[in-house]
Every structure is written in C-alpha cells, then in structure tokens.
TrEMBL record:
SUPFAM superfamilies for this protein: Aminoacid dehydrogenase-like, N-terminal domain (SSF53223), NAD(P)-binding Rossmann-fold domains (SSF51735)
Species whose genome carries this gene: uncultured Thermomicrobiales bacterium
Function statement: Catalyzes the oxidation of 5,10-methylenetetrahydrofolate to 5,10-methenyltetrahydrofolate and then the hydrolysis of 5,10-methenyltetrahydrofolate to 10-formyltetrahydrofolate.
Residues holding NADP(+): G166, R167, S168, I232
Gene3D superfamilies recorded: Leucine Dehydrogenase, chain A, domain 1, NAD(P)-binding Rossmann-like Domain
Protein name (record): Bifunctional protein FolD
C-alpha cells in the first residue's frame, strides 16, 4: 500500500477559486476592495520573499495588498502608531506583520495593539486566548492550513489520537489547540520528550513542526496514519532541495495519507490569510 498524497497545491487552487468569487461579491457589496496590509520593520530577505508570496495570493484572490515597510530604526512607539493608523482605517480589513521583528521590538508591541478583528494571523493576545479557550477566532495561518488539509480530505479527527511534534507559538501549539477543538485526543511532543518513536507510533494523525529533517521515519508510524508535515528544512544531504521533518520515502508505504514537502501544507497557508481577510471584511457588511 502507498499513502494518499495530500496535495496542497490542489487544495490551494480550490480555495483560491472559492475566495476569488467571494471577494468579487464582497467588494461589490462593500463598495471597495478589501485591503490586506503587511507591516515589516527593516529589510529582511526571508520576510521579503514571504511578502512577495502574499502579494501574489492577494492578486489571485482579488484582495488589495498594501505593504508597509518601516525603517529598521522604528521605535516601539512608532510601530504602535503605525498599527493604530491601520486599526482606524476602515478599508484595511486584515493586518499582517512579518515576524520576527528586529530584536529591539518585542512581538508584544503588535500582539497587544493590533485590533483583534483585523488580526488575520491570530497573533494578538486576544485571539491567542480565544484559541486557547476553544472559541471561534482567527488562528495562525500555517496550522489553520493543516486543519484545512485534514478537512478537505475528510480525514476523521474526532476521537482520534493526534501527536504534534513541536510546540512553537505559531505552529505546533496552535495546531494542537485546533485539533483539540476538533475533538482529537492530543499529545504534544518537543525537544525534551523521551520515547518520541513510541508516542508517534500511537498516533492516528502525526503533525510535525520541529524543523528537523528525517526526525520522523516510516518505522515510527502506525500503519495507515495521516501525516501532516510543516517542516521546512534544507539539509546538506538533500543538495539544496527543501525537505520536511518526515522521511518521505520510508513514510510513504506505511502512512495512510501524507503531505509532501514541498507541495503539501505550504501552498495552503497564504490562502488562510486571504480567507481571514475576507471574513474580516464580511463583518463590516454585517455591521453596516
Ligand atoms: P516552528 O516555528 O516552525 O514551529 P521552532 O524552531 O520554533 O519551529 O520550534 C521547533 C519545535 O520543535 C520546538 O517546540 C522543539 O521542542 C521541537 N523539536 C525540535 N527538535 C526536536 C526533536 N528532536 N524531537 C522532538 N521535538 C523537537
């Protein structure tokens, strides 16, 4: 047996078409095109390529993109003022910040000042708290994309055992909370977890967000398990190619379904931002 490939490009394309149709209807009803603003401080190449991807996703879904590049010397007060301006701008429906911010700016400057209803990546303390409570909210886009993959492929979640490897605030932890909200029995593993293999072997759904190539091999999987791999690694042995945290070749004959890297969870993430921006825009309509 060989696993079903969970095709992120196909899911992203379906989402794109759905969102494009929705944004056209919304713009007509609102009388303006919803804007997604992207705040970056300083000039980081990784952030720049991230922003380029989001711009493309905006173009392809009919959302206006407004990048706001602040100089590296921006102070916390200056950054808060920029966020306040975006909060007050009715046309700006979603605001995204490229993280990490430079060392002199704690993430809390944004997390505590961005309006939660515009926080399309779920980084504000309010939205993180809502997620922890299991309330409806904007969740971080990477794990939201993973949940979307599970749903689009009708992978059963409720009552199943999900093991999440990695506990970062933007991927592992929110993914665990979303799986919990969907009634999975959830185990979170991290750097200090002994017996990783034994725990992973009990999982119906394995989620990896550890940043370690080949951390999970086929021998560690329960036959038929679903594997969602958020890993982005460029190990020397792969000769510059991108690989996930899961050893794809050995996992493929054991897993029931698996996301490839690239082409798995990655393409779906930006579409989650588009969806949240449109959801934020829709609330303007309800309130009008
Ligand atoms: P991301 O932001 O992509 O989730 P981070 O680098 O912030 O990734 O976090 C990596 C996570 O992976 C941490 O929670 C860490 O404990 C976990 N991790 C790293 N190495 C291992 C390992 N060998 N076994 C289990 N968990 C690991």
């Amino acid at each position: 047996m060989t696993a079903t490939i969970l095709d992120g490009r196909a899911v992203a394309e379906t989402l794109r078409a759905e969102l494009r149709a929705e944004s056209a209807t919304l713009a007509a009803r609102l009388g303006f095109t919803p804007i997604l603003a992207i705040v970056s401080v300083g000039d980081d190449p990784a952030a720049r390529s991230y922003v380029a991807g989001i711009r493309r996703a905006c173009e392809r879904t009919g959302i206006a993109c407004r990048p706001l590049e602040l100089p590296l010397a921006t102070t916390a007060v200056g950054l808060r003022a920029a966020i306040d301006e975006l909060n007050a701008d009715r046309g700006v429906c979603g605001v995204l910040a490229t993280l990490p911010l430079p060392p002199h700016l704690p993430t809390s400057v944004i997390a505590d000042s961005l309006a939660p209803e515009k926080d399309i990546d779920g980084i504000t303390t309010t939205n993180a708290g809502r997620l922890a409570f299991g309330w409806p909210t904007f969740a971080p886009n990477t794990p939201a994309g993973g949940m979307e993959m599970l749903r689009r492929y009708n992978i059963p979640i409720a009552g199943n055992h999900a093991v999440v490897v990695g506990r970062s605030g933007i991927v592992g932890k929110p993914m665990a909370l979303m799986l919990l909200a969907a009634d999975a029995t959830v185990t979170i593993c991290h750097r200090r977890t002994p017996n990783l293999a034994a725990i992973v072997r009990g999982a119906d759904i394995v989620v990896t967000a550890a940043g370690r190539a080949r951390l999970i091999t086929g021998a560690m999987l329960k036959p038929g398990a679903t594997v969602i791999d958020f890993g982005i690694n460029f190990p020397e042995w792969a000769g510059g190619k991108m690989v996930g945290d899961v050893d794809f070749a050995s996992a493929l004959p054991v897993a029931g379904a698996i996301t490839p890297v690239p082409g798995g969870t990655g393409p779906v993430t930006n579409m989650m931002l588009m969806r949240n921006t449109l959801a934020a825009a829709r609330t303007l309509l309800d309130g009008a």
